[in-house]
Amino acid sequence: MSVPETVSRHALSEGRRWFRVAAGCYDGAGSCDVQGRQNDLGQYRLAALIRQFLSIAFLTGKPSDLPGSRDSLHFAIVLAVLTYIAATISFMGFGLAVGHAILDIILSGGALYLALHFVNKLPRFNQAFSAYCGAGSVVNLASLPIIYTSRASEAQSGFVVIEVTFWAWSISVLAHVIRFTFETNIPVSIIAALGYIVLAVTIFDLVFPG
Question: Does 73 score more than 70 pLDDT?
């Protein structure tokens, strides 16, 4: 078996495990406990977790509403990567889509970790990054019909406004997470979100020129 195939199989296995854990049915031996065995997420089962992601995406929930476990964080990251790839694969191909998704997770997670460390609020990382990844996944999923419709249509002008709307939504979600995680006001959180976007776009252009 080749190295890429081995890595792919391992990634798929880990993805399935995290989905089972998030659903509250993983028993550590690769099987599902139909009686709802307690695990790291406790009462936060898959449906509840997704509802929280939705509420944060629509700016009504807060990162502190989420469980702070690693399992919920892993689930949110896997969901973010998969939805990012689904949203970008049609116009950049599988390889670049995966590369962009991984770099996005590294940049956003690294920036959040360093910022929280700087203000001595590092224990909030799991909840904050879970909120960002989970709510971002909602935005990615919502954009899929627009992306694939615009790719199939010759009239692109109408989709520019929609694309800008999704960009504004993404920035609003990031600012919302920053606001409640760092306990700051709305103007500061928006400026911080825009500053991160500028930095991220610059790094993306350096890593993936053209």
Answer: yes
